Amino acid sequence: MLEQDKASPRPQPRVIIFTTPTCSFCNQAKRYLREKGIRFNEVDVSRDEAAARDMVRRSGQQGVPVIDIGGRIVVGFDRNRINQLLGIR
Questions:
Q1: Which of 6, 16, 24, 88 is the residue whose CA sits 20 to 30 A from 64?
Q2: How many CB atoms lie within 10 A of CB 89?
Q3: Mean pLDDT, consecutive 10-residue segments, the chain of 89 residues?
Q4: Distance between CA atoms of 28 and 42, rounded to whole angstroms?
Q5: How far is CA 7 from the centre of its chain?
Q6: Which of 2, 35, 20 is nearest to 66 (CA)?
Q7: Domains and CATH numbers, the chain
């Protein structure tokens, strides 16, 4: 491996996950992010109408989870897309 490849990894993008307490895919997504050591902010859209409107504005979707990774939106628990956007192998 080249020395430059060992340089400090690029900083993790900001991750926001829009969820509801009863959403099983939300829980799977949060568990997955924790397992991978990814820091994230969770927003419960069932308790915050403004956040729910923000989620729809960002994604065009009312379903959860919606994951914002550095401004790029993932609708649902799409492990491959999450890995791609976070640089996880």
A1: 88
A2: 3
A3: 52 94 97 96 97 96 96 96 93
A4: 13
A5: 25
A6: 20
A7: 15-86 (3.40.30.10)
